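Below is a filled-in request sheet from our internal design queue. Each sheet records the structural input a requester submitted and the sequence that came back. We keep these sheets so that new team members can see what a complete request looks like end to end.

REQUESTER: design group, bay 2
PRIORITY: normal
MODE: inverse folding
CHAIN LENGTH: 151
BACKBONE (tokenized):
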């Protein structure tokens, strides 16, 4: 897919903002609300997976949006190395959340317990990448995609 026009990116920006807002809010709420822990955890992991693909061009779909559409000089390699926890656990995220897979049970039996996801690490790494991305955003997109603290 060739780079979309600026007006297309402007119209699409609320979708990117939604993903990062949901990740940020979900990570914060998980620490407070134990009753709905699994739903919040799944929200964090799904939004992390979506944003990982956005920042690292990790997708097989020609219709997906990427950070490079907003910032042509975006450093995909640096983003991927910063998001190392998600990168390392992406296969598990896919198997446990996005696919009804027999590997779920096999991995739990091998490990002897369910996986403990480090959502604090996910949020910290995503915050670093988001703030880096936001610094390089052209001015026309900054209002729609503000820095982490203003989401």
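RETURNED SEQUENCE:
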């Amino acid at each position: 897919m060739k780079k979309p026009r600026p007006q297309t990116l402007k119209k699409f920006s609320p979708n990117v903002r939604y993903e990062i807002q949901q990740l940020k809010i979900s990570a914060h709420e998980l620490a407070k609300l134990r009753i709905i822990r699994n739903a919040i955890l799944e929200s964090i992991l799904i939004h992390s997976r979506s944003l990982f693909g956005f920042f690292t061009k990790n997708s097989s779909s020609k219709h997906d949006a990427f950070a490079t559409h907003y910032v042509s000089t975006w450093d995909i390699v640096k983003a991927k190395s910063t998001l190392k926890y998600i990168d390392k656990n992406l296969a598990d995220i896919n198997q446990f959340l996005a696919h009804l897979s027999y590997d779920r049970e096999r991995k739990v039996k091998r490990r002897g317990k369910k996986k403990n996801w480090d959502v604090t690490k996910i949020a910290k790494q995503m915050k670093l990448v988001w703030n880096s991305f936001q610094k390089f955003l052209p001015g026309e997109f900054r209002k729609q995609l503000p820095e982490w603290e203003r989401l």
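SHEET NOTES:
- The chain has a mean pLDDT of 89.
- The longest helix spans residues 6-32.
FILED BY: M.R.
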